[in-house]
Amino acid sequence: MSITVLKAGLQTSLQGAPFTGHRHLGMPAAGAADCLSLALANYLVGKPSGEIALEITLTDAIFQVNAPCSIAVVGGATYVRINGKDRRQHQTVTLIAGDKIHIGPSRPGCRTYLAISADIEADRLLGGQSTYLAAGLGGYHGRALETEDVLAFALGSKTIELDRTTPDSLRPHFSNDHVLRITPGPEAGALDKGILDDLCRKPYTLGARANRMGMALEGEALLARESSNMPSAAVFPGTIQLPPDGQPYILGPDAQTTGGYPRIAQIIRADRHLIGQLSAGSRIQFVKTTTERATEIHQEKLSLLSSWLGQIKLW
Question: What's the rounded mean pLDDT across residues 238-248?
Fold first, then answer.
C-alpha cells in the first residue's frame, strides 16, 4: 500500500501541522505554508486539519496510487486529472490501485495540497511529521520528494467512504493581488512613527528571492531615521523585517527563530495562510489594523470555518 512519485515537480514535500513549543531550541515552525488549503483538503478525506499531506509548489506533479484510497486536491493548481480525465478540486475522489493523479501547475497562487485518506508513513520529530527542509528533518527523510520515491501507507490505515464537496463560500480565491492586514511590530515606533503608513501607502511586488524561509519585496524603499541594525530578537512566520536596503522582507513558515533586522509589522494570524500562496510577481497591499481587531478577525474566521471543518487552527 503506497503512492509512487512519477514526477516530483519543483518542490513537493510532506507538510502538516507546524512544530510548536520548540523555538527556544532554535526549531522553526515549518509545516504547511497554506494551512487553510491543507485543512480543507484533509477534511475531504476524513482527516484532522493538521495531518500531513503533499505540498506541491508551483510546477505540475504526477503520482500513482498502488492501493484503493480517497484523495482531495485544494490549492492553486490549474487542473487535476485522474487517468487523463479532468476532475474538480474541493471534492472527495475515490481511487483504485493503478490510478494516476496529475496535478497542474499553480497559477495564480503558489501551492497545492494533495490529501490522502490513508496515513502516510513519515519521520516523526518533536511530536510532528512535517518537513523542515533547511535542516533535513521530518517528512520523507527530511527532503523534498524525488521522482520514483515511494511513500508507504501505514499499516492498519483505514479509508472512510466519503463524498464531500467544499461549499463555494469557503473556497479560497487565488489571485496575483493580495491584501494582507498587519499590526505594528516591536520596532515600528522606534524607527519612525510613520513607517507603517509608508508601508501601506503603495503596493509591493514579490521578487524572485522567495522560498519557504522568506520573501523579499520590491517597491518604494522605506527610509528609517534610525539604524536598521539591532541585536537579534525573536521573529515568527508573518513577521515583516526591514533590511538596510529599505525593502521589506516577509518571513515564511521555515524562517529562523531570531533575526537582527527591525520588526516593523506582523501579518495577522487570520491572513497568514495567504503567505503560502505568494509567488514571484504577486502584488501585495498592506492594510493596518489593531491587535484587538486582529483578534476579532481571527475569531470570526474560525467561527465561519468551523461550520464546515469543525475545530480548526490557523497558524
Answer: 95
Per-residue pLDDT at 226: 58
**Domains contained in the chain, CATH given:** 2-170 (no CATH), 177-309 (2.40.100.10)
Contact 95, 65 (CB under 8 A): yes
Return the H-helix or E-strand segment holding 223.
none
- The pLDDT value recorded for residue 7 is 98
Q: What predicted TM-score, i.e. pTM, was given to this entire model?
A: 0.95
**SS3 state of residue 132:** strand
C-alpha distances in angstroms, 15 versus 76, 128, 137?
A: 16, 10, 12
In Å, how far from its chain's centre is CA 173? 15
Q: Which three cell numbers stand for residue 132?
A: 523542515
* Sign of the torsion angle spanned by Cα atoms 85, 5, 114, 12: negative
pLDDT digits (tens, 9 = 90+) for 223-241: 765 556 678 899 999 999 9
Query: How many angstroms separate the Cα of 145 from the Cα of each of 63, 136, 240?
Result: 11, 12, 30
Nearest CA to 38 among 16, 56, 71, 59? Answer: 16
Amino acid at 304: L
